[in-house]
Structures are given as structure tokens and as C-alpha cells.
């Protein structure tokens, strides 16, 4: 029996750790689902007038409504949308009647329509404020000669178009550009992780039981 004590303690201890990890992942799953639900509710709220000084933390995903006129200059962000395939997000400056200039993500155009003429237009826009976290140390610098950007870099785009560092992502519209509304883009793999840890705990206990069986049989 003494030979069984150490394997038993080791087996039960390992299983306890694996079960703890599984429970933690289930807790993380509950937290993540609550966070996603809160963001989705925020995105779908009734729109309000554009704040005087939008704050990236306080006003992230805030639904807003604003009227203004787009400028002729555009920035094109390389992207891909199903089922159309590769193309570009069209980012333009929107100037309000009060003289404010903000960035407007008008939506997606296919590659063939990248340089189609889009004359200035007066729009009543409903959308959501966004400060997309799309840049890192691996993001290439924009190709200014060809007007191709590789991420929605709000400060850099605002500098290029002479606007406030504020981006409104348009919710709806007809034709091209086709609006690509803000959506929740948070990874949520906690259920798979929890199942994995649970199955490992079961396997660990099964192997422990088999080891104890072999030890007992060899000592009889």
C-alpha cells in the first residue's frame, strides 16, 4: 500500500489542478459573454449627436448621428469582405455645418472600384465611433503614392485629411461604398479551453487509476 501513496497523491493533485483550470475557463467564458453582450447592446443603442470632445475610452462604439459633406479626398484601406473578396475601405473627411471635420468610414468597395470618382456628397450619417486597434510593429507604412493603407490608423489618417482624430463607421447606405458596420471582434475560445482541461483531467484520473491497478496487481 505504501507504494500507492505517492502515485495517488500525484494523480489527485494533477487532476485537481486541471479541474481548477477548467473551472477558471468556464468563469472566463461567462465574463467574456457578458462583455460581448454589453458591447453589442452599446453598438445598437439609439444614436445621439456627435459629442463635442469624443473620448476613445468613454465613447468607444457610441452610436451617433451627424450631417455633413464629404470631401473629394479619400484614403483607401486594404481589406477583404465576403463574398466580394479583396477591396478597400473608403475613409473620407466629413465636414459638418458647424465646421467640424471628422473621419468617416463609408464602407467597402471592390478592387476594381478603388479609384472610381466619388464626388463630394451631403450625407445624414448614422454610425458608431471607433478607434480600431489595427496597427502594430508589423503594420507596413501606407503607400501614399498609390493611396493604399494597411490599417485604420485614426491619428495618422486624421493628419492626412486634416480632421479631428475621430472616426465614425457608417451603419447603412445604398450602393458603393457598401457600409461595414461596427461589430464585436473579441476572441472567445474559453469554452474550447474549458473542455480541453476537463478532458485532460479525466484522462489524468484514468491513467492514475490504471497505474494504481498495475501497482496493486504487482504487489499481490
UniProtKB/TrEMBL annotation:
InterPro entries in UniProt: Surf1/Shy1 (IPR002994), Surf1/Surf4 (IPR045214)
Residues passing through the membrane, by range: 191-213
Superkingdom of the source species: Bacteria
Pfam families: SURF1 (PF02104)
Main subcellular localisation: membrane
Subcellular location: Cell membrane; Membrane
Keyword list, A-Z: Cell membrane, Membrane, Transmembrane, Transmembrane helix
GO cellular component: plasma membrane
Bilayer topology term: Multi-pass membrane protein
Keyword Transmembrane helix among record annotations: yes
Sequence similarity: Belongs to the SURF1 family.
Protein name as annotated: SURF1-like protein
Source organism of this protein record: Halovulum dunhuangense
